[in-house]
Sequence to fold (1384 residues):
Amino acid sequence: MIKVGIIGSTGYAGVEIVRLITQHPEAEVVWYGSRSYVDQKYAEVFRNMFEIVDAKCLEDNMDELADAVDVIFTATPQGLCGSLVNEEILNKVKIVDLSADFRIKDVATYEKWYGITHQSPQFIEEAVYGLCEINREKTKGARLVANPGCYTTCSILSIYPLVKEGLIDPKSIIVDAKSGTSGAGRGAKVPNLFCEVNENIKAYGVTSHRHTPEIEEQLGYAAGEEVLINFTPHLVPMQRGILVTAYANLTKDVTYDEVKAVYDKYYAKEQFVRVLDKDVCPETRWVEGSNYVDVNFKIDERTGRIIMMGALDNLIKGAAGQAVQNMNILFGLEENAGLQQIPMFP
Amino acid sequence: MIKVGIIGSTGYAGVEIVRLITQHPEAEVVWYGSRSYVDQKYAEVFRNMFEIVDAKCLEDNMDELADAVDVIFTATPQGLCGSLVNEEILNKVKIVDLSADFRIKDVATYEKWYGITHQSPQFIEEAVYGLCEINREKTKGARLVANPGCYTTCSILSIYPLVKEGLIDPKSIIVDAKSGTSGAGRGAKVPNLFCEVNENIKAYGVTSHRHTPEIEEQLGYAAGEEVLINFTPHLVPMQRGILVTAYANLTKDVTYDEVKAVYDKYYAKEQFVRVLDKDVCPETRWVEGSNYVDVNFKIDERTGRIIMMGALDNLIKGAAGQAVQNMNILFGLEENAGLQQIPMFP
Amino acid sequence: MIKVGIIGSTGYAGVEIVRLITQHPEAEVVWYGSRSYVDQKYAEVFRNMFEIVDAKCLEDNMDELADAVDVIFTATPQGLCGSLVNEEILNKVKIVDLSADFRIKDVATYEKWYGITHQSPQFIEEAVYGLCEINREKTKGARLVANPGCYTTCSILSIYPLVKEGLIDPKSIIVDAKSGTSGAGRGAKVPNLFCEVNENIKAYGVTSHRHTPEIEEQLGYAAGEEVLINFTPHLVPMQRGILVTAYANLTKDVTYDEVKAVYDKYYAKEQFVRVLDKDVCPETRWVEGSNYVDVNFKIDERTGRIIMMGALDNLIKGAAGQAVQNMNILFGLEENAGLQQIPMFP
Amino acid sequence: MIKVGIIGSTGYAGVEIVRLITQHPEAEVVWYGSRSYVDQKYAEVFRNMFEIVDAKCLEDNMDELADAVDVIFTATPQGLCGSLVNEEILNKVKIVDLSADFRIKDVATYEKWYGITHQSPQFIEEAVYGLCEINREKTKGARLVANPGCYTTCSILSIYPLVKEGLIDPKSIIVDAKSGTSGAGRGAKVPNLFCEVNENIKAYGVTSHRHTPEIEEQLGYAAGEEVLINFTPHLVPMQRGILVTAYANLTKDVTYDEVKAVYDKYYAKEQFVRVLDKDVCPETRWVEGSNYVDVNFKIDERTGRIIMMGALDNLIKGAAGQAVQNMNILFGLEENAGLQQIPMFP
Fold:
């Protein structure tokens, strides 16, 4: 059994890692890290785990942790993972970082968008951007995986094939994204109260959301040129789910079948990416509780644009599920081990 | 007192007209039309009206109705109003049509997008598109007002000043809209069940939603040239509210202050359009229960685009409230009579 | 115009008072008290008030406030009003206290259930328990009104006629109550986050909720004997609304008509209490946004019990609306002034 | 592999059976019955099954079905299963009936509460009431299992130990229950629309809900005497979950530890019933997505009553999960096979 340690196990992404690993056939959680709940029973924080998890929450002790486990998931605020890693740690244990610390190759870009001084820029180069469907081969053998953001996973997977194949103008991409509220975390803040979120929708972080440069960088690799996008996230009164509606100008006349073939080229063999049937729009409910991403597109001949859409569960394929998928790749397991949950509806 | 008749009073827009008119100082509902609930007490259909409305629902009898009232609101499916109006009716009574029948000047466009043969194309020309803030003067003295759609009201008011002043390229406009579920009406359909809508977000009518040509026509008048847009509506798990996030390329370098001045030029004197403070994004909760539209914008210097945003209550400014506002204009009342409700939060 | 000051104007009950008074024909808010937002514009805290309220939030300065206004609403945590009132203040200004400080006549009971030492027990005797439909006459001329709790208003009005007329055994009463989340206040606490409240229902404060002795005291006055009840509140994933389902043993065989006559005896002339038609169950949506309480009952001949039900909007009849109703009584205005909003649906 | 046929596979309970069986290690669905969607691909009805289930929906053909499968789940309206079974069918195949047809031993009681003439009263006697934790032994070897109702499973498991041990007066039991909306089924009805359910709570079926006699019969067996209860269900704006709050008079003075020991006597060895820690109230979110029932109690010394509480996922332990649990018992599998999902939060 692979021994798993989690730093930040009492956030929403943390408890989802716990849920997935507890049902994983070849891994087990042996370290429930949580600064906020040290010495408290984990099942008292998350009572769904009553009679399932008996352990208590532990302080962050990176050295002790690195000796105790085979892989560490850091489900923590930006900057923490960067402050914890060092050569010795990385030689002992694999790290899958769910924060943004190692996602962006250009440290200046990271520091500008996040307003943080990076504590370990020397490891950025070797870190692998863990978008499994694209970087699977690079991840094998890695020591440090930067688990992608929730919005970015959904955005990139929706757009990637068309950028890669040159069917859309990378300068014309607009991503309008919508997220459930678990993406805002479990911090006690007025804007996340039930009465503030319910019966409301709003945009936030307009022109300034931190997932923007992450999407731009990854799509830039695919395009072979610099990509600038507009990315606008919205908060939706639901718990889980991200929906991306992306717009771009087509570079040439294309038919439905031609574009479908491009999506299939990249995703037909992927278990977790489902290219939907013609005219079926992705909906978050059809992926909730699973590691799936549903994608599709619609050509608008009137305007010469294409609308690309994607849906995923922000806590699974957008966070914990992809982290487990990366763990599976790192340790040579079946990539879908522990991740075969069927979406739950209603 | 102005006597009001409502055809379709037992839909969501219908009951909202009833609520507004019942509190209106100079109007009263004297005809509660409803095909589905003929002879049933209105307050048994909508129990909020218990001990407030004592009347029963009546069949559509256009002749009798035209004799009994001063103004008719048609809150009915597409095609019905078109089949009911004639010269005699219009000489007796004002009509405010909440359906799309008289919104679009080009009958071929109407018939193509709606898949309906128009029954009264001869009245399209005289019908006034009742977007009050733009067409107020034309509405005075009209016989037939085409009350704008919910998405269109929000979209046009968010974008109009910049198109009118030539600050954005009208060919580059993309409108990504999000609506609460009351916009889907009160019909008993599986897709509108609680368990289907809740915990879900989806796009629908992608590239084909019927509000597209309505927005294009009105923005076209402002631009002085043909406008083609992408319009994508989404269904959000909330009852009321529409949020529009619109994107366009700026035609020149502009500052925040310059753009703000343009919005103020058109809206500073408008009671129901609130241009928000810098960097404040419209949210549907802040307008719910009122006739307000909140608008704002954000310039993205990186991409040369501007993001325009608007929020309104789809049943009020997006339907019943604007209909009452049009009635007020038609009858020379204070334009805000019966419409001064403060948004209700939470 | 009656000048109104609000201590605690930035909670959910506070903003509802502001909304109601702003639309009141004979009153105006001149003091927006808020410890948390001193010197901040009120409309920046609650953006529904943008372009409607221009004032800034003020610190609690009881002396200055008492000179500036005719009536003070205290929408504050338990204990604060008790610490602020004194003879001088009460001689200058009317006080409507939305906290529990002056609701319970026995100070020992108050101190036991609330765990607070009462700071002004000398004023408990003169304070009038402001359940308008029952204590209207006592309220006229009062200096200090204890505005009832939300659960208690709904519970008492649902049960009162049957206790008063001796139709039910007061020792057998069980009140199972359900509340929307605005009742939990606007404090930033994890249990009130969207993701914690949504898709969940739970009981809380079982056998120990503080509204228990308040209901018992008031029903005891009606019964003419001590009343002990079970009261169990539940948190429901909605914003507004309280539903009470109460059970009691009938003291004799009664018919529907006999019980209906008893309810009508007390409520037929009350504008804000609606006794529903036979077999119609109260629902919170039919009172939301209004000062109404809907009540009804169902006799169970099999078990010899009666089920009494009531629904209200916890922020209006359960808090701010009843406070305004009390203000109207205190100042000799029409009791429904500013309170004639029709419930908003959907 | 056990071959499973489902009649009514396109309701909410049906799709949950499909989800559970698809992940079951020793069973597979080979017949997707659905009158409404004959010949349509199952994954087009429930798109969560896209690329997971390839089959089409089939008509009800009981003879063909009985030859094709080892067990039939009937997730259908009342009366249908009763009309389908006969000796020949029962000799070929096991039946787990999720409707009420075989739950109540007294056919007159069934016909009175359901208003239906029973088509197969001759099988009522042999049918086993499949509340697994209580009737496990009887179920082994049965041909026909009456899968309990959702409310009844939650109510009985919450109350059973205290009735069985004589700690509460069975004549005093009051059950106040709250359910998510999936319990109302997938039929297209106005009362189940999003805008009707959301932001609302109501009681329904007061004194007349059909689960009443089912609870009474089962508790009567435990009590050894006739039991009459009050049962009041409520509709809550959430998708899944039932919460029961039950009240009864204690027959003697008891301590927390004594009552806890009684619950533990019956449930300590049960995987799917969790007796919570002292003072912890069951909440539906902590069982959602799992086959667990969480129960607990609170003694009220003031009133001499005990409050018993239970929470379950109405579609799993309240329907599909218990049906699979019964299948496991029928076929001698591990009782928790395919049912080890951890509750999903948030």
In short: The mean pLDDT of chain A is 97. The interface with chain D takes residues 12, 15, 19, 22-23, 46-52, 182, 199, 239-240, 274, 276-277, 280, 283, 285-290, 294, 315, 340-346 of chain A (CB under 8 Å). The first strand of chain A starts at residue 2 and ends at 7. The radius of gyration of chain A is 20 Å.
